[in-house]
Write a structure and sequence with these properties.
Layout lengths: L3 E7 L3 H14 L4 E3 L8 E6 L4 H20 L4 E5 H7 L1 H6 L5 E3 L7 H11 L3 E3 L22 E5 L1 E2 L10 H5 L3 E2 L2 H13 L4 E5 L15 H9 L6 E5 L8 H9 L6 E3 L7 H6 L6 H14 L4 E8 L6 H14 L3 E6 L17 H26 L3 E9 L17 E5 L4 E5 L2 H4 L2 H4 L3 E9 L4 E7 L16
Parallel strand pairs: 1-2, 1-3, 3-4, 4-5, 5-6, 7-10, 10-11, 12-13, 13-14, 17-19
Antiparallel strand pairs: 8-9, 15-16, 15-18, 16-17, 18-19
The structure holds S-adenosyl-L-homocysteine, iron/sulfur cluster and FE3-S4 cluster.
């Protein structure tokens, strides 16, 4: 079999990152191996996102640039996958003559056959069929990057919630869950490959297994917790309306479950939440936050917000700011509302002008910046266990005044904070001991975007079961 080079460019959420890995996995038997260099690739795949207009534009502008590369190399196969592919289908082929293949979000396991057909007859193909059930339940996990200690595992696909602003139910299809045995099998395989942490993915993990009568999400977590060699479990995303008492209690019960929950609220105003079709009130949300903090007092809570939803008044936006002050999140993602095809809110009246959206976004981010800074300051002097991810990729640009000497490594705490730290030279020569190990870091300094500290204990052995080594740092 001839060896061929494949470049995959990924735009969008963690699910697309997972799908990209699956795509690499299903195409490996055809002889494709990954390359970062587009110009030398035999096939380029763009895995696209359409959650906001900007994401869609990004996909089309990247595809536009590929036309030139294909001109120089006419045998190049150009494929478009993901959510824009699902949304636009055939229209992409019409608009872009250099595109050979458009495959939707449910077509990944049909890729090998389609790519073979294109290789042999240079035909153009569109496959955007959606199915209500999972036809192929893996595991087909693609290659890991060198020293990768954390991996995504999709446990369910699609979404049945139909929030009025959201395109996801239209491009990812109906909610469907994978079988728990397949999920556990895939995680075991990842652990054997060196992974220590998994993040279980779904648009609404709380409703995992409901439709199919499989186990509950809390039961799935308990099974995953029992996997030998796995150190940590994370999950995302949790829809507040379905966050059950059982799942809340899980935070106090499972040893490997990280003390972090991403609980997107979108708005702090009941009227806006209703028009968004979120199906919970501000009070119900705050009650769940309070219960989480009773069960797990140090739990880190993060969220997503949309500013400038159609009809959002200044007073309603103030309620959102007020909710942020009340919850005091560890961090958040905030987005300006964007009209999406098929999403009902696109037809709502009371659209908010762009400058107003920008102003609200800035006010929200400024508020969170202060809260994050205060929370970071409060962590100074504390010791946190991190899973060491590898050499530090550098600090955020506005934290360059940091006074810490020789910051060279970074790890993630259970609360999902990245903590930078220096390590003794002797250990630097034995990288394999550090990456993928657990180490205790005493936090010495905090900035708006970063934390740094001193290695005080660890690393434990790279394989967890070998026990600990104490290091004089
Ligand atoms: N399933 C997840 C979110 C998936 S989309 C959940 O329910 O929380 C990720 C985030 O994008 C959403 O939480 C929302 O904040 C944002 N988003 C979705 N549609 C959007 C739109 N039309 N305009 C702006 N932001 C949007
Ligand atoms: Fe979109 Fe709502 Fe589904 Fe999340 S729960 S993916 S925001 S429709
Ligand atoms: Fe984007 Fe699709 Fe994810 S629209 S956010 S890549 S589900």
């Amino acid at each position: 079999m001839t060896s061929k080079l494949l470049h995959i460019s990924t735009i969008g959420c963690q699910m697309n990152v997972y799908d990209t890995n699956q795509i690499a996995g299903v195409l490996a038997p055809l002889g494709y191996t990954g390359t970062d260099v587009i110009e030398s690739a035999d096939m380029v795949i763009v895995n696209t996102c359409t959650i906001r207009e900007k994401a869609e534009q990004k996909a089309f502008s990247f595809l536009g640039r590929l036309a030139k590369i294909k001109n120089a190399n006419p045998s190049l196969i150009v494929a478009v996958g993901g959510c824009v592919a699902q949304q636009e289908g055939e229209a992409i082929l019409k608009r872009m003559p250099h595109v050979d293949l458009v495959f939707g979000t449910h077509a990944i396991f049909r890729l090998p056959e389609m790519v073979r057909r294109i290789e042999s007859s240079r035909c153009r193909i569109v496959d955007v069929r959606l199915s209500d059930t999972i036809e192929f339940d893996g595991p087909v996990a693609g290659p890991l990057t060198d020293g990768q200690v954390s991996a995504f595992v999709t446990i369910m696909r699609g979404c049945d919630n139909y929030c009025t602003y959201c395109v996801v139910p239209h491009v990812r299809g109906r909610e469907a869950s994978r079988h728990p045995d397949r999920i556990v099998e895939e995680i075991r395989m990842r652990v054997d490959q060196g992974v220590r942490e998994v993040t279980l993915l779904g648009q609404n993990v709380n409703s995992y297994g409901n439709k199919e009568g499989l186990c509950s999400f809390a039961e799935l977590l308990a099974r995953v917790d029992g996997i030998d060699g796995l150190g940590r479990i994370r999950f995302t995303t949790s829809h507040p309306k379905d966050l059950s008492g059982d799942l809340i209690r899980t935070f106090g019960r499972l040893e490997k479950l990280c003390h972090h929950i991403h609980l997107p609220v979108q708005s702090g105003d009941d009227g806006t939440l209703k028009r968004m079709n979120r199906k919970y009130t501000r009070n119900a949300y705050l009650e769940k936050v309070a219960r989480l903090r009773v069960v797990c007092p140090d739990i880190a809570i993060t969220s997503d917000f949309i500013v400038g939803f159609p009809g959002e008044t200044d007073r309603q936006f103030q309620s959102t700011l007020d909710l942020i002050e009340t919850v005091r999140y560890e961090g958040l993602f905030a987005f300006m509302y964007s009209d999406r095809p098929n999403a009902p809110a696109a037809a709502f009246s009371g659209k908010i002008a762009e400058p107003v959206k920008k102003e609200r976004l800035q006010a929200l981010l400024d508020l969170q910046k202060r809260i994050t800074w205060e929370k970071h300051q409060a962590m100074v002097g504390q010791t946190r266990q991190v899973l060491v991810e590898g050499p530090s990729r550098g600090l955020a640009s506005d934290d360059t005044d940091i006074a810490a000497p020789q910051i060279r490594w970074a790890g993630r705490s259970s609360s999902n904070h990245i903590i930078h730290f220096a390590v003794p030279d002797a250990l630097l020569e034995r990288k394999e001991l550090l990456t993928g190990s657990f180490a205790d870091i005493m936090i010495k300094g905090a900035h708006a975007h970063s934390l740094w500290g001193r290695l005080i204990h660890g690393p434990m052995s790279a394989t967890l079961e070998k026990g600990e080594t104490t290091i004089a740092a």
